[in-house]
Design brief:
With about 450 residues, this protein is α+β, with helices and mostly antiparallel strands. It has 2 domains: about 180 residues, no CATH class; about 260 residues, Aminoglycoside phosphotransferase (APH), C-terminal lobe (Aminoglycoside 3'-phosphotransferase, Chain: A, domain 2), CATH 3.90.1200.10. A 7-stranded antiparallel sheet has the order 4-5-9-10-8-7-6. A 3-stranded antiparallel sheet has the order 1-2-3. The longest helix is centred in the C-terminal third of the chain and has 26 residues.
Length: about 450
Amino acid sequence: MTVPSPAALAAWLPEQRWFAGKTQRIDEVAIEARVPLGGAVLVLARVRLTDGSVDRYALPLVSSPSPRDALDDPGFAARLLAVVAGQERVGGDGGAITGHPTSAFPRPLPDRLPLRRVGGEQSNTSIAFGETIMLKQFRRVPPGINPEEEMTRFLTERTSFAHTPRQLGSLAYEAPSGERATLAVAHELIGGAEDGWSWMLEQLRTVTPHQSASLPSPAATWVALRRLGERTGQLHTALASATGDPAFAPEPITDADLRRWSDDVDRQLDAARVALGGTLPVEPPDVRLALAGLRGALKIRHHGDFHLGQTLYLRARADFMIVDFEGEPLRPLAERRRKHAAVRDVAGLLRSIDYAAAAGRSGDGEEWRAAWEQAAGREFTAGYLEAAAGAQFLPLAAPAFARALAAFELEKAAYEVVYEARHRPAWLAIPLRGLISAAARVRATESAA
């Protein structure tokens, strides 16, 4: 098999949409493994950037001196799925690829499924096999199990939660040292679905600013948002159900957790200050008191990157599926797998509702958008609290939930400030408004507490 040279890969990688190091120059590319498969070769390449950071990428390449993505080749993609189906081990120079089907894998697998690449993804590449299977190949492959593989396998095989696509199997890279890394995950393909962000923008387009500020949207929108809240609460309940599995068993939230989470919020606020040139639009509040009400509740595995784009709206059923459990891809794998307060996911979705209101009705008045956002957030949160009522991952007192929610919204808004300052300055006003609002609510809880 002919593999492109490290120099050729260094020139090709920055042109790829999923390459995460576009703000730096590549200092070195080192090939760790080559595994021939389906007439192509899967290359594991370690990429060092000029800032000293190092990432490892999985590169399916056509056998050629010039880099070309083999995922465009139906034969190679079909071979990947066959490795999963057959629980195969395919060896190569520097390691092996192994397949790991779940109990949900379709048997027998239909012959000659038509293939198509799915657009829109930033950090991975997905291929649809007919209307049956979706295979997501991760491009950055740090050592260890990816939360997408771990959590969807858990939900598929060990819970009755039916509102995320069932995992059908996964592919792993196994190094000679015994190290294992997730390469790809296969899920059932959900037909007739649209992503929740697009659905929300459509709902906003149906509303006029002259409708009542107390209910400025068709009732069906509120019903759907309440349903999404219910599904989120049911997801957390399912994730908290494995008392005997160390990777998933809920654990009491300790003082050490609260200190770490408070420090995380403060660090994110510091990063936002730097991104804004040294000043924030509001004095940062002390979040320690806001989080203190979580003491004694349980920390659990959670989605970790929850927003409207991580949901699928099923119009025929007026229902939602929750997808993409990878976590924030740029965070370390160990951090993405760490247990946390469930309310952090709620905060992420509420921030997404704020973004939708701003993006979908940018020409309308601030007062109307704020009223719509608050009404939408109330419906989602009410559905969540109803579904999760009595769960030990929630604080016993409602005010403690509200205080923690404000603190995690502050953290998320600060994260968004950094992102928008770097990538979309025109959108910076959205997270700045969210940061000011969340800071005010955190500060208000100090006197209330």
